[in-house]
Amino acid sequence: MLDTRDEAVVAVPPPLSQAVGYIVVVVIGLVIAFTMVFVTRILKRTVGEDNEKTEMFMTANRSVKTGLTASAVVSSWLWSTAMLGSSLVGYVNGVAGPFWFAAGCSPMIVFFAVLGISCKRKIPEAHTLLEIVRIRYGKTAHVVFMFLCLVNNLFACANMLLGASAAITAMTGMHIIAATFLLPVGVALYTFVGGIKATFLTDYIHTFTILIILCYFSIKAFTLEEVGSLDNLYNLVKAAGERHPVSGNEHGSYLTMTSKGGILFGILHICANFGLVIMDTSFFIKAFSASPKAVVPGYVIGGIAYFAIPWGIGTLASSVVLGLENNPIFPTYPRAISSTEISNGLVLPYFAITIAGKGGAAAILIVTFMAVTSTLSAQVIAVSSIISFDIYRTYINPKASDKDVIRWSHFGVVFFALFASGFSTMLHYVGVDLGWTLYMLGVITCPGIFPTTFTILWRRQSRWAAILSPLLGMATGFAVWLGSAYALYGSVTIATTGQVLPCVYGTVASAASPIPYSLFITLLKPEYFDWADFRKERLAFVIDHTSSTSAADAALEEELEAQHVSSQPHLKRWGRIAAIWAVATFLGHWVLWPLPMYASKYIFGQKFYAAWVVISLIWLWGTLFIAGFYPIIDGRQQLADVFRAVLSGRGKRQNSGSSSDVDSGVEVVGDDKRAQKS
User: Fold this and answer.
1) Which of 519, 490, 488 is nearest to 506 (CA)?
2) Do 158 and 423 touch, CB atoms closer than 8 A?
3) pLDDT at 667 over 60
4) Which range is least confidently modeled, 34-38, 160-164, 194-198, 245-249?
5) Of 272, 321, 339, nearest to 101 (Cα)?
6) Which DSSP state fits 245?
7) In sequence order, what are the beta bridge partners of 65?
8) Where does it primarily localize (predicted)?
């Protein structure tokens, strides 16, 4: 799709110096990191949040409120590629591109509320998805899903780093490999010290900053004399479609939802993103970290609010770039943007430079840096949890102490930050860029979607179905992907495997084929899993301070079981609410809204286009409130407690276990085999 453009690239001089790039990536990164370290110390002293305890480090004592959960959900999906990629597909496909990008993100975030509350109900002490898999299916399945999750995290990080590094290099002239290795430095530092709570807080700060800048762009674009108004912007985009008709769009117009490229990307994107969400252990960690009453509203509000970011900014940025590409104020004038620049995600940076000059370039630099570091922190803590809980605690030292697990969590943070940077560098040198990873990502991430969902929601999936169906699905997806590239283009290269059709075919095969595989294998040898078996293994770190007798263990077991039983009606109600919102979001964002517009072959008129842009930008400002101000309102009590404690100079000493453990004089440390005693 991109190879039809002129490949002759005349480099656009970076509007900012390399020094600015290093200041943002290194200095600001370290400032944020040390600030988070300081905040972590304050929280430990004032409200007892001790990140030297595993439950606090990994799950924030399962007490994060709705506002911070919603902000963290937006942040988890606020990849640098969300803004760079939505502008890219908007430039290529017109207004359909950003819409399908957004519609490929929100439904699975809301659907994850179903999985999150189901985990809270069935296995409330879990730290990672893989613990659930191991308890239900055993060690072979555990290793298979560990492989799937690690591959998912690795390619997700590579996708972020490739896009962010290319954008930073374009803005500052900083060497792309230096950017790739330096971006994770601050992330690794504050995640190393603060754990998941530092991730939540940093996510919040970064997301708030990004949304302020994006909302500023939504106003600044119309102060540009060449844009001026929505009516003028409409005329500019309409003229661009007449100059360069879009193949597969109705009458070649950029102003239509009847876009073959757009809907193909939508299919590819929603499949890939279901894989990225469901197989990303960071989403499970954030669900486990949220309080039970915050999981569903946090994910539903966050998922719906997020929709506006790729839709609003992608539509505005691509419209301005398409309209002003032949204007002397545009950075690449007199030539059009090359396919290499498009694939590197430079549509959004060129938009910012066009409307705000060096200030716009600096703003995009900050947005890109904060987006990539925020989402990297979630990936780093996710892989760290796999290394510490699912490798070290399971296979190396089953009787690991609290300090042992924390130490291995620290090793995991540093190791994965370095490994992801090295892997991204390798991809860069073999010719892979943001565009390629954006299109093919689903082939890698999708095989585990349905086996994982069945693991949590369907008690009849058999052990061998869980083990074999994702592996067969991945093999099927790769075969279809590479076979389609060869059949359609005559060879298997990076260029041909990055085209839309092979990626769509491969992604759909990778996502859908595990369903019949799982059903068929399950029918051959049916199994029935009792959800109560999840609670036979004590996963939280629990040790009694007053006694080591089996009587104390039994009392603790009875207390936890009583809490579990009493919470079931409440959690089931939240589960029904989550399911309703998941169905409604999918139907709204993927069926009832876009498909009639696709079928109608309607080309936007001036008033309809104006309404389209205005609604997307109002939604964007609403997202600023949800992700920026709602966490402050929701967490005002803890903020007041911390503020009063700091002013009084007195720390508040308390145990750092879960809230129920604090009351019972029990601290979370422990041995996951205790519940298996006879």
Assistant:
1) 488
2) yes
3) no
4) 194-198
5) 272
6) P
7) none
8) membrane
Q: Are 461 and 397 in contact (CB under 8 A)?
A: no
3-state secondary structure of 456: helix
8-state DSSP, 252: G
pLDDT tens-digit series, residues 262-273: 999 999 889 998
What are 626's two structure tokens? Answer: 């949800």
659 pLDDT band, cuts 50/70/90, is: very low
The residue-averaged pLDDT of 307-324 equals 95
CA distance 149 to 70: 23
pLDDT at 540: 62
Please state the rounded mean pLDDT for residues 517-542.
84
Q: How confident is the model at residue 549 (pLDDT cuts 50, 70, 90)?
A: very low
Q: Cite the DSSP H helix spans in 430-493.
A: 434-445, 449-457, 463-489
CA distance 296 to 120: 11
Distance from C-alpha of 4 to C-alpha of 609, rounded to nearest angstrom? 28
Where does the pLDDT of residue 221 fall: very low under 50, low under 70, confident under 90, or very high at 90 and above?
very high
Rounded to 10 degrees, the C-alpha dihedral 368/374/378/384 comes to: 90
**Integer Cα distance of 269 and 87 in angstroms:** 14
Q: What is the mean pLDDT of the chain?
A: 83
End-to-end CA distance of the chain: 63
d(CA 161, CA 314): 20
Q: Which residue has the higher pLDDT, 208 or 413?
A: 208
Closest to 505 in 3D by CA, of 274, 343, 264:
264
Quote helix, strand, coil % in the chain, to nearest 5.
75, 0, 20
Cα angle, residue 473 at apex, residues 470 and 478 outer, rounded to 5°: 130
Q: What are the residue boundaries of the structural domains of the chain, listed by start?
A: 18-40+60-428+554-639
Q: Residue 228 corresponds to which amino acid?
A: G
Q: Going along 437-525, which residue ranges are E strands?
A: none
Q: What is the pLDDT of residues 496-528, one digit of tens each?
A: 998 889 999 999 999 999 999 999 999 998 899
Q: What is the DSSP annotation of 290-321?
A: B-TTTHHHHHHHHHHHHTHIIIIIHHHHHHHH
Distance CA 108, CA 656 (A): 33
Which pLDDT band, with edges at 50, 70 and 90, does 662 fall under?
very low
Q: Does domain 18-40+60-428+554-639 have CATH number 3.40.50.10440?
A: no
**Dist. CA 236–CA 324, nearest whole Å:** 7
